[in-house]
Write a structure and sequence with these properties.
Blueprint lengths: L9 E4 L17 H9 L5 H8 L15 H13 L3 E6 L3 H16 L3 E5 L3 H4 L5 H9 L6 E5 L6 H9 L3 E5 L14 E3 L13 H15 L11 H10 L6 H13 L6 H10 L7 H17 L3 H9 L3 H36 L8 E5 L7 H12 L3 E6 L4 E7 L6 H7 L6 E4 L3 E7 L3 H15 L8 E4 L1 E2 L7 H8 L13 E14 L5 E7 L2 E7 L12 E12 L2 E13 L4
Parallel strand pairs: 1-12, 2-3, 2-4, 4-5, 5-6, 7-8, 13-14, 16-18
Antiparallel strand pairs: 8-9, 9-11, 10-11, 14-15, 14-17, 15-16, 17-18
Helix pairs in contact: 3-8, 4-8, 4-9, 4-13, 8-9, 9-10, 9-12, 11-13, 11-14, 12-13, 12-14, 13-14, 14-15
């Protein structure tokens, strides 16, 4: 959704592609979409064909991933010997989906398996001592411990488990730490060694492990395609690049989602009103937040129970609870955002500083990441938002802009942090309250020394010029062949020039605007989310927009979603 930015964004028309695909595969494709393919490097026929119609049979050998053979061998030892297995994972969408996939596959082999997910506020991220202690007290002592979406940098806990005779397999996608490889039986992480698959999320790596198991010992009663919808939900929600096999997995997973066999996903789709169609934005803005909300509000077990549910009635009740958690999360998020904005206004001049770092003892640690994301988008600054507990220890989440690596920034500030890690664009830290100012100074210095001035400037990249007369169902169907959109395959932004209003804008709930636009002889209605906060110039306009499928009262249409408006002729 569009929001009013603090500063006017600079519009940048992407360069003309060096070449445009000239092959039978794109016959009849709208010229602006052919241009889009060329811009994104898809020119040769085979390349274009794989992009527009990715095939599951083109999936690579799972044993291309490091230590896959070790992991598969140890899993089958546990299955054959009737050993107890515990699948331990993170509390976000990727972690919850990964646990679900791993447990489902192991149960198909008849394994003795249970699961565990830590509570964010009290047990933290990854393999913490508190979480492991609770895990060991809640079920049979495992012989094999499989971590999903965590574990790569958990050297101490993994060594302790090993000392107690418990083997550990790490299935992860996070960056490697400076201490090297943990002492586990197998580390299946495409980022730990140089591989072409570093873009996979944890659920993607778990899917690879499942593929490796099934390739080694096929099962007649289990179809790996049945979990593709979960892989798609996790991949989109974790905002990893939708390139290579990620694109393939998400494309096929989204196709399966409307008719999913997972009763929990089906219940969540019913709660969110998704019927008959699902796009990456539907997952990112409707399904993912509800699964995440349970973990953010310290009830990750209910999100996991939803995806593992067998009864439609149970799934419905759980999905409704996740929906309620999401509403509660939204209220908490709004309060924290308002307090963070007030803190910034009172203590900092955001426009003059390279970073945002705010903290409070009144904030919920499960929501600070979303607030950091909103601050980053509004001010176009790397941002950390920190929730401080009664002992004065802060747990913070950060979100970055392109060109600024949070992983490197955290390493640079290691002397003032308790701990930290994650991805280049999203990361977490632990910091003592009295070191928060020192971290802000270190973080700001790192950004000033390593970021370009343009990295801190809000920009809107325009993919092409498109007239309103093109926005019909035929164009929509062609456009959808380029999906899924997301990180690595961004949603195309078009511009329509010299656009007039047919009638006065209508202000809707939450300051959204409904607009009726006219360009030449073509007319089109449009939505401008958050547009009511903007002071619009006098028409005519140049209008930057994206498109989406709209289904209302049984009719499908090409929906125009405005991203920005400026006076005609200024772009």
């Amino acid at each position: 959704m569009a929001n009013a930015n603090l500063r006017t964004r600079r519009w940048i028309l992407r360069d003309d592609p060096g070449a445009i695909p000239d092959c039978e595969v794109v016959g009849g494709l709208h010229p602006v979409l052919q241009r889009l393919l060329g811009q994104r490097g898809f020119v040769e026929e085979a390349c274009v064909g794989n992009f527009l119609a990715p095939r599951l049979k083109d999936l690579s050998d799972p044993f291309d991933l490091p230590e896959m053979e070790k992991g598969v061998k140890r899993v089958f030892e546990a299955v054959d010997q009737g050993q107890e297995i515990c699948v331990y994972g993170d509390y976000d969408v990727d972690g919850i989906s990964s646990i679900t996939i791993m447990q489902t596959v192991l149960q198909a082999y008849g394994a003795k398996v249970r699961h565990f997910v830590p509570v964010r506020s009290t047990e933290g991220y990854g393999l913490s001592e508190a979480a492991i202690a609770r895990c060991m007290g809640e079920g049979p002592r495992p012989n094999l411990f499989i971590t999903v979406d965590c574990g790569t940098v958990s050297h101490g806990p993994i060594s302790q488990l090993g000392a107690e005779g418990i083997d550990v397999i790490v299935v992860d996608h996070h960056e490697r730490g400076e201490a090297g490889r943990p002492d586990c039986v197998a580390l299946i992480n495409p980022k730990f060694e140089s591989t072409p698959y570093s873009y996979l999320c944890a659920a993607g790596v778990v899917f690879k492990l499942a593929h490796g198991l099934l390739k080694t010992r096929p099962l007649e009663n289990f179809d790996l395609r049945s979990v593709l919808d979960l892989v798609a939900v996790a991949t989109i929600s974790d905002i990893v690049p939708l390139v290579g096999e990620n694109r393939l997995l998400v494309r096929h997973g989204l196709k399966r989602l409307p008719k999913t066999m997972n009763v929990g996903l089906r219940a969540l789709m019913d709660v969110t009103g998704l019927n008959g169609h699902a796009s990456s934005s539907d997952v990112g803005f409707r399904l993912g937040p509800r699964i995440n909300a349970a973990g953010r509000m310290d009830r990750p077990d209910e999100a996991l129970s939803t995806l593992l549910a067998k009864s439609p009635a149970d799934a419905k009740a759980l999905a409704e609870r996740l929906d309620n958690y999401n509403r509660e999360r939204q209220k908490t998020e709004l309060r924290i955002l308002e307090e963070a904005e007030a803190q910034l206004a009172a203590t900092h001049k955001v426009e003059e500083e390279p970073v945002i770092v705010v903290g409070s003892r009144n904030w919920h640690p499960g929501v600070v990441g979303i607030v950091a994301s909103r601050l980053m988008r509004k001010y176009h600054r790397p941002a950390f938002v920190v929730a401080i507990d009664d002992e004065g220890v802060g747990k913070g989440s950060g979100r970055s802009v392109e060109g600024v690596s949070l992983v490197e920034a955290i390493r640079n500030a290691g002397d003032v942090l308790i701990a930290g890690g994650g991805h280049h664009m999203a990361a977490g830290i632990s910091v003592h309250e009295d070191q928060l100012a020192a971290f802000r100074e270190s973080f700001g210095k790192y950004v000033m020394e390593n970021a370009r001035s343009e990295d801190l400037e809000p920009k809107l990249h325009i993919d092409g010029v498109l007239g309103l007369e093109s926005l019909d169902l035929d164009f929509l169907y062609q456009y959808e062949s380029l999906q899924p959109f997301g990180s690595g395959n961004s949603v195309p932004v078009f511009v329509a020039r010299d656009v007039w209003l047919s009638e006065a804008p209508r202000v809707l709930k939450n300051n959204h605007l409904k607009l009726w636009l006219r360009q030449g002889g073509a007319e089109k209605d449009a939505m401008f989310f958050g547009g009511g906060e903007r002071e619009l110039p006098e028409p005519p306009w140049d209008v930057a927009f994206t498109i989406d499928r709209n289904f209302f009262r049984g009719t499908t249409s090409c929906q125009m979603l405005i991203r920005d408006i400026r006076p005609a002729g200024q772009f």
